Amino acid sequence: MKRILLATASLCALGLISPVLAADLPIYGKAPAIATPLYDWSGFYIGAFGGGGYGNHNLNNATGPAGFANFTANYSSKGGLGGGEIGYNWQSGNIVVGVEADGFGADIKGNDNFALGWDDATKFGWGGTLRARGGIAVDRLMLFFTGGWAYGELTHTNTNPGVGVDTFKATRSGLAAGGGIAYAITDNLIGKIEYRYLDFGTFHRDAPTNGVLAYNVANTYSVVTIGLDFKFGGNAVVAKY
């Protein structure tokens, strides 16, 4: 019985002493940090987008061979558009740069409602852009800016009551600029919202045969789209500690 009591006392003593001894032991190192995977935006992608846009049109009526008067009518247009795109991104740290090309069909149209005694109407039918992109990525979220070349086909219709209708198409080159926010929903699917400003400059129409004077029209557009891209390849993990 004495031996059992002695053994029990010894075990209790060890249990009380061991934590004290352990507290005095030196710590020679910490547990290794665990790498947190971050999304890598590098690689090819293709996608589709759709949205709507508004146009602004300044019409100048010609005063004769010497030149043009100040614009005599201003009108707007609105409508939808949709298309596809292809691009490539490079990432270094949290900086992302890339190039993107797209093409789209549009139905953005409006008129001046006979502001000059006849009706001038403009329709944006199709277009595309080739742009550089630059952005700042925070894991799966990226804020980006873009700019480059734009092109598109504009159809202008002049309706002169009692005289006739004159319609012509102008394929225009111009500038594109804008920006947006993209988010990697999965390693391969990327959703985005984007704004673009398109400036197609001014096109000139010689005096048509229906008796209307020559005129020129300046055309700009603001477009907002929602898109979904597919990025090829798996996500190469960028480690963060």
SSE layout and pairings?
Elements: H1 2-24, E1 36-38, E2 43-64, E3 67-68, E4 73-92, E5 95-111, E6 119-138, E7 141-160, E8 164-184, E9 189-205, E10 215-231, E11 238-240
Antiparallel strand pairs: 1-11, 2-3, 2-4, 2-10, 4-5, 5-6, 6-7, 7-8, 8-9, 9-10
Descriptive notes:
- The protein has 241 residues and is mainly β.
- The protein has one domain: Porin.
- The chain is built from one helix and eleven strands.
- It has one helix spanning 2-24; strands at residues 36-38, 43-64, 67-68, 73-92, 95-111, 119-138, 141-160, 164-184, 189-205, 215-231, 238-240.
- It has an eight-stranded antiparallel β-barrel with strand order 2-4-5-6-7-8-9-10.
- Strand 7 and strand 8 (164-184) form a beta hairpin.
- It is elongated, with a radius of gyration of 33 Å.
- Residues 1-25 and 64-68 have low confidence and may be disordered.
Short account of what is shown:
The chain is mainly beta and 241 residues long. It has one helix spanning 2-24; strands at residues 36-38, 43-64, 67-68, 73-92, 95-111, 119-138, 141-160, 164-184, 189-205, 215-231, 238-240.
* C-alpha-based Rg, rounded: 33 Å
Counting helices, strands and paired strands, the structural category is mainly beta
**SSE sequence, one letter per element:** HEEEEEEEEEEE
Q: Return the average pLDDT rounded to an integer.
A: 83
In the sheet with the most strands, the strands line up as 2-4-5-6-7-8-9-10
Number of strands: 11
Strand content: over 45%
Biggest sheet layout: 8 strands, antiparallel, barrel
Intertermini distance: 59 Å
Helicity range? under 10%
C-alpha geometry: elongated
- Provide the CATH top-level class: Mainly Beta
Number of domains: 1
